[in-house]
Specification:
The chain is α/β, with parallel strands linked by helices. Bound molecules: S-adenosyl-L-homocysteine (SAH), iron/sulfur cluster and FE3-S4 cluster. S-adenosyl-L-homocysteine (SAH) binds next to strand 13.
Length: about 450
């Protein structure tokens, strides 16, 4: 059997694509290895959300190219994912040792590509499609990462064109996968022992908007998945603030398997900055949405994403981001300094760019605020008993612990000498650290 190594650099969608690529490759006689040095085929599944992730991808294949030149002339190298979709044939110019470039639209062409490169051809497959490739997807088993959670993409692409963001260019227009294929993938995952299904999309609340022949939206999909037999949880990410409907919130409250967790990126606390980002809401509107979700969904965790140093952002506007985190009691946020991306609108506003050191300094202050609020949010649960789905058994600083997550997505560490991975356990929360709760089995 030949061996394949895939380095996965991006978001959950990117990880889900890697699992699908592994599945196809194992169907065609490849076995996964954790060690790129012993692989016959090495692939990088790239992310272009920031310049740094793009640079990392090119430096990694640089190393592989060197191996090929000096000691492994038969090594095959594949460049896949969002940077591939964006750069296409240009990758060959920059890295002539690459055997194939595979964009995000046609991952199910991988088996044909492998045949061609094994015949000595070089292939670039980055054709955009306006359809989903569900018919092809259903032909292959997905080789999922060993975990309790299974990712299932429900929409691909994005139509929002936020002025900073590359995703609409790397993933194309928004397309919904059919409920039939999603339900099939969910059933397979549950049969294979997965205890949690996470539905993925750049904008999950848009699910089904593009169906011409039926009226079927995210709330309906959640209902159909909730009706499947078995003891498992359902999550969904990411929500675009103004697309969260009352029906969706009510469905989350009503359905027992759907967890009390919303990821609702705000990006900036300043209405003026939000306008320049082409987000379709202002600070007040975001506030109302968060308040509505909190009022209806007991113990809900709401997380967000923020960017510091967007072109033209003033110190006062940045401070509005800090106050938003406090005022809306956001439980946790992902943060990043603005990185200009080729093709996007904001990347052309070079005269408004903020100095690197100012961006970094703001990022540090933002991270401090996130840390403070995460701890505050965790403290609410000390003394409570919560259901935890165990994900790991590990030795943490000399002690055996099991770790897992509550329904509302809080990480919990529990001292325990046995591996209880995959079990739902009732845990008494006894204390908290910044990023996780501490508990005891009861
Ligand atoms: N669809 C999601 C976000 C997907 S991208 C949404 O609309 O919220 C994930 C995160 O990366 C974004 O939320 C944003 O915070 C960050 N991001 C995107 N482009 C960026 C850029 N050019 N520089 C810095 N961070 C960026
Ligand atoms: Fe990017 Fe905006 Fe689409 Fe999210 S909604 S993927 S930030 S363009
Ligand atoms: Fe994901 Fe990065 Fe692409 S965040 S969609 S892998 S640009």
């Amino acid at each position: 059997m030949k061996k394949v190594y895939i380095e996965t650099m991006g978001c959950q969608m990117n990880k889900s694509d890697s699992e699908r690529m592994f599945g196809m490759l194992s169907h065609f006689g490849y076995e996964q290895t954790e060690n790129p040095k012993e692989a016959d085929l090495v692939m990088v599944n790239t992310c272009s959300i920031r310049q740094l992730s793009e640079d990392k991808a090119f430096s990694l294949i640089g190393v592989w190219g060197q191996w090929k030149k000096t000691s492994k002339p038969d090594l095959k190298i594949g460049f896949c994912g969002c940077v591939a979709q964006q750069k296409m044939k240009e990758v060959f110019k920059r890295a002539p040792y690459v055997d194939f470039v595979l964009g995000t639209h046609k991952i199910y062409s991988l088996p044909e590509i492998i045949k061609k490169i094994n015949n000595g051809e070089r292939v670039c497959e980055c054709t955009e499609t306006n359809a989903t490739e569900d018919d092809k997807a259903s032909q292959y088993e997905i080789d999922r990462v060993k975990s309790v959670n299974a990712w299932i993409p429900i929409t691909e692409g994005c139509n929002n064109f936020c002025t900073y963001c590359i995703v609409p260019y790397t993933r194309g227009r928004e397309r919904s996968r059919t409920p039939e294929i999603i339900i099939k993938e969910a059933k397979d995952a549950i049969t294979n022992g997965f205890k949690e299904i996470t539905l993925l999309g750049q904008n999950v609340d848009s699910y089904g908007k593009d169906f011409k022949d039926r009226n079927y939206r995210l709330a309906q999909l959640l209902r159909d998945l909730n009706n499947l037999e078995g003891n498992f949880r359902i999550r969904f990410v990411t929500s675009y603030p103004t697309d969260i409907t009352d029906e969706l919130i009510d469905t989350v409250v009503e359905l027992d398997k759907v967890c009390e967790y919303f990821h609702i990126p705000m990006q900036s606390g300043s209405s003026e900055v939000l306008k320049k980002m082409n987000r379709r809401y202002d600070r007040e509107t975001y506030k109302k949405i968060v308040e509505k979700v909190r009022a209806k969904v007991a113990d809900v965790t709401i997380t967000s994403d923020f960017i510091t140093g967007f072109p033209g952002e003033t110190e006062e506007q940045f401070q509005e981001t800090l106050t938003a985190i406090d005022e809306f009691e956001l439980d946790y946020s992902n943060t990043a300094a603005y990185s200009p991306r080729e093709k996007t609108v904001a990347a052309k506003w070079t005269d408004k760019f903020i100095d690197e050191d100012v961006k970094t300094e703001r990022l540090a202050r933002l991270n401090e605020k996130v840390r403070e609020n995460c701890l505050k949010s965790n403290q609410k649960y000390v003394g409570r008993t919560m259901e935890v789905l165990i994900e790991n058994f590990e030795n943490h600083k000399g002690k055996n612990v099991i770790t897992g997550r509550t329904r509302n997505n809080k990480i919990v560490h529990i001292p325990c000498d046995n591996d209880r991975t995959g079990e739902f356990l009732n845990v008494k929360i006894t204390g908290t650290k910044t990023w996780y709760l501490q508990g005891e089995l009861i």
